[in-house]
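Open question from group meeting: does this chain pack into something compact, or does most of it stay loose? Before anyone orders reagents, we agreed to write out a predicted structure and look at it together. Recording both the input and the output here so the notebook holds the full record.
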Amino acid sequence: MSFTFKYCSLIFLIINPLILTSGDDIFPKDKKQSTEIFLDRFTVYIADSNVPNLNVHCHSFDDDLGDKPLLPNQYFHFTFRQDFMYSTFFSCNFSSIAPDKQITKSVVFNVFDFDISVVCRYPSKNCYWLARDEGFYFSVDNKPFPNGWTKNHTWQW
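Structure tokens returned:
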């Protein structure tokens, strides 16, 4: 072995640990911060247009949002990040409850899944659902009803 090779090998062994440990501050220390770059943040809005005593219960594999009672012209929303496999979904059970506490009509459907995420991605990553007596309408830009709203689901009696 030549003197130059031994000398370069020795320098590499001394400097290499310094190079490997000095780069810690290059990467974000907060894992949440690093995922914000890759995972899209969506917001789903659910509004009651004219359904008396609407109850909404939404859930995913990971989260149960509980019961949300809504009166006409009220809404609620939730925000989340879509997972890297694009398998995030939220399903909601909608029920109209009579004054005697009996369910008069109901329906269950996904308010967010892969197909909806493709539509909601642009322009704002917002998805809007509007509950009405005749069914459920979807929009991505929340224009005044009925402009830009599409009827996607009907009540089950």
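Observations to bring back to the group:
DSSP finds three helices and nine strands in the chain.
Confidence is low (pLDDT under 50) at residues 15-35.
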